[in-house]
Amino acid sequence: MSWFAPPQPIETEVFTSLPEAFRDRRASAWSIANKGGQAIDSFLEGPCLGPDGTLHVVDIPFGRIFAIDPAGQWRLVVTYDGWPNGMKVAPHGRLIVADYRRGLLSIDPVSGAVETILGAVNSEGFKGLNDLQLLPDGSILFTDQGQTGMQDPSGRLYRLWPDGRLDRIIGNAASPNGVAVSREGTHAFLALTRAAQIWRVPLDPNAQAGKTQVFAQLPGGLSGPDGLVVDGQGRLIVCDPGHGCAWILSPLGVPLYRVLSCAGRTVTNAVLLPDDKTLLLTESETGQVLRARLPQT
Asked: The domain spanning residue 222 has which CATH number?
């Protein structure tokens, strides 16, 4: 980003924190594989809004889904045997979850009932799903990240159509993570965590991803881009847990703002409130949800 003027800082505040009643600091299979075996009490991601303003988040290592009301009160929706990561609310109200261990799931936000949408491809298991995006035509974009990285750039971006057809759009990504769609619906933005890049991928009905472009090259470090959000102006919000912030890029890929974490460094995912001005971000290191007001220019 040294080619551009320094992005302007935006401060955050804590909106709400995981209540102590839900915190049990210990090692888990997930933390052993992903956090060097350290004891943790949560790792929040996947923020998404229900039609009534309820914020839903996942807790990956302990297979939990939480609902948070507009006043910041928490409710446990379900605990199940899985590692939920990305999540969105479908038009019918169910939660669609990209689960690292179990594939693409549907969860009832009231009863907590879990159903499998897609657990494998032609009997072959996924590497490990990470994030997803719901498209207006009913199709689902989702990333299959697993443990891919610069040593193994074989991560995937899939599109599941309402009729059950599955397209593999990208198959050579180094750690594909967050995914978002342009306002026009013509392209997907794909975060490559280990390559510290954002790709701009054409969304062709025939699954042809020709002329995929590096939209942005982020600074290197210990981790790269995670969750992505496109706002009403077409700006791309990029959560960067490696640098404790979220970047706001113009529709042309120019860095405009840097949303600074007021808590830990691990800013993983974000969601915009309906006003298109208020941004909520999961800070996974401390188990908190942060809030920022975005400039409209």
From this structure: 2.120.10.30
